[in-house]
Amino acid sequence: MKWGLLSTLKSILILLIILPLLIGLLLTGFSSSREQLFFIISLSLFFAIPYILVTMVLTRFIKIRVVKPLEELTQVSNEILSGNLDCPIDYNRNDEIGRFAAHFEKMRLSLKENKTEQMAFEQKRRQFITNITHDLKTPLASISGYVEGLGDGMAVDEEDFQKYLKVIDKKVKELDTLIGQLKVFNESEEDQLSSKGEETYAKDFLDELYETCGIDVALQGIPCVLINEIENDCRIKVDKDHMQRVISNLVNNATRYAVNTFEMKGWNNHQKVYISVTNDGHHLQPEELPKLFDRYYSGEYRNGNPKGHLGIGLSISKNLVHLMKGDIKASINKNRFIITIELPICDEVI
């Protein structure tokens, strides 16, 4: 565009110089006095000099306002094509090219943001796969060791034999739980989860949930307590299997860190039922709370993930609770970490 325009301007300039000369020569029959020749040259310059000045100004204007921005946009687009998104466009004029450059800059920033998010996601995904591999290998190695030991006569009596079988059974259940987590997580990511809502009395249901998980907590030597303040006639509509998995995830998360405190509490108002799980021993910072329900997130990453936390339990819990028209939140009160589930109360009569 640049060279085509300049070539056109040069052609017009030459024409403006030569045309008056030819006209003058034709009028004088190619035999002119010095005065006539001077007149002809002056006439040519009269047309040419203003045109030269206008052409210079116009050329500079076009170069600054059109050619240079387009060259910069072309350079930036080439950088983007090569994968470099750190190349801002410095053109702030309020004209057509300026508006086009502004839209181009927004596109660049959007691509850069998406690339940053994708890189962070890939890093979390790789960490997630590493943790899955670790969590699968650990119980498998333990099962293999105990089976080999039993085959070599490691159990000296029936009591020892049953003890080792219980350990193997526990490890198998750990594997089954992990695989179940992954299955639910995959279904939630692909929007394949469904919920079969069933109305139930919230107070009785919380007692059932605690009866199941409280035993597991107590077996780990952690003091546990249930505070059930839900009104007797308060009803909720939940998928009991989903809710059992949610509570199981929260309990596993709590007992991973709990030292002297594990508490389940239930209460209600006129619109919602609240169920909370509280534990001490956490190492979370308040600024981490908004990230806790993100897939793959685990605060343990910064310490090498020593507890093998996959970072999907709370994400699964959030998806399941939302599926039941509820909400789930995290908070910190002094040295206590609290996860609270909110579920809507049913108005219909059972």
Automatic annotation (TrEMBL):
Domain HAMP residue range list: 64-116
Keyword Membrane applies: yes
Annotated compartments: Cell membrane
SMART domains found in the cross-reference section: HAMP, HATPase_c, HisKA
EC number: 2.7.13.3
Database matches in Pfam families: HAMP, HATPase_c, HisKA
Catalysed conversion reaction: ATP + protein L-histidine = ADP + protein N-phospho-L-histidine
Transmembrane parts of this sequence: 12-31, 37-58
PANTHER family reported in the protein's UniProt record: SENSOR HISTIDINE KINASE CPXA (PTHR45528)
Identification of the protein by name: histidine kinase
Organism this protein belongs to: Sporosarcina limicola
Lineage of origin: Bacteria, Bacillati, Bacillota, Bacilli, Bacillales
